[in-house]
Amino acid sequence: MRENDIIQAEYEEFEGDVRKLEELIGQLELWSDEYTINHKREEVRLPEYVELHLNLEALKEQLFAFINQQIAKEGKTEWSIKAETDIKYRLASYRQTEAHIHKWIREIKDIYILIAKSPLLEKNRAYIEEILKAD
Prior knowledge:
This protein is an all-alpha fold. It has helices at 3-35, 42-74, 78-106, 111-117, 119-123, 125-133.
């Protein structure tokens, strides 16, 4: 492959990942609408949320890593500024949903029992405790 083709493929992959980010945020918003209205099946719902959150964080890091890589190569460009702004905007629009989910988490009774029963929750205990400490 020529270098221009490789660069084009990298940008296309980035755009695909941006679409994945939008889909994941939409999935989290639907999840919030469906499952935070009550506290039924928390032992299933909390790990689901943590898994979705981890996917979002990994994708977010990947996107910003690519932008930073491009900035290191080319300096700040119109593309990098727009890409960074767009991603930050998408993430900011998710903040209200995230706050709603975190409120639901803080209302879970016996949350430490749920954490102890789930390897995923135990592994991410620090994240959950961070949520619990926030207002």
